[in-house]
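User: Is it possible to get a 3D structure for a protein together with its bound compound? The compound here is oxalic acid. I've pasted both below.
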Amino acid sequence: MSILLAVTSWDIAPWRARLQGLYPNETIHALGDGYDPAAIHHALCWKHPHGLLAELPNLKSIHSLGAGVDHLLADPALPDDVPVFRVIDPNLTAQMTEWVCLQVLAHHRKLPLYQRQQRAHEWRHHDCLPAAKVRVGIMGLGELGQSAGRALTALGYDVTGWRRGKAGVEHFSVFHGPDGLKEMLGRTNILVSLLPLTPETKGILNASLFAQLEHGGSFGAPVLINSGRGGLQVEADILAALNNGTLAGASLDVFEQEPLSASSPLWDHGNVIITPHNSAVSHPDSVAAFVSQQIDDVRTGQKPWGLVNRKLGY
Ligand code: OXD
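Assistant: Yes, that's possible. Here is the predicted structure of the complex:
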């Protein structure tokens, strides 16, 4: 039985070392090693070459090494009969919660404006609403959205969330379905997107959605925060909305094309905060431990945590 690290764009050495420590009697293969395809039972993937998994005849499980699984489901030759698992890692969740809180606080407390004033050596105060009067709406209430919502609630924000289906109870009000989305957007000052990328959510962060956010209240124009996936957003619409005042600002960790082109006007927009898709980074220590539990569960016939519903796309 062997494990394959089907990983591109990351340094696999720490992953291999960590997994070897967890499975001292097994061979941990990586792309480019001369492995026997029939010996691979578990594939641990991050942006694997499409078609590769279909060539592993004895594959028992496919694991994403990140929270998102769109990189796996985009493979047209993904084997139909092999379960796909995603990572639910407290370390990833904590990082994402930190990033979302950082961005909400930055826009609420006008950090981009004060940074511009600092560069101009300008000492000027601007009024700021109390957190309880700032309405944060979270689209996507998986592990990441729920955790961010709880932390923002603890900071005193007026938090609501939206999910597609009805299930689940949170520490804050939850809307669901298309009508619920409309309702939540209409009362949202700061929109946080933590949605997965699916055919249904592609391009959902667009001009028509921005127009439905709350405008004209005491917060002023709304703010967009997206650390879900770049494919959720229409960047031309974000720029237009920033330029015509439909949006007051944005924090973006993900982009339609990554890395973001050096010529994108988003870099230079005064109220846009850009991070290079690192709001939550998979660390081998915690993620390998989580995935090894999934592998052990598959091997012993248990139901591992994190099974992906391929129809829903997450
Ligand atoms: C993830 C990511 O899916 O980092 O975890 O994008």
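The first helix runs from residue 13 to 22. Residues 260 and 285 are 29 Å apart (CA to CA).
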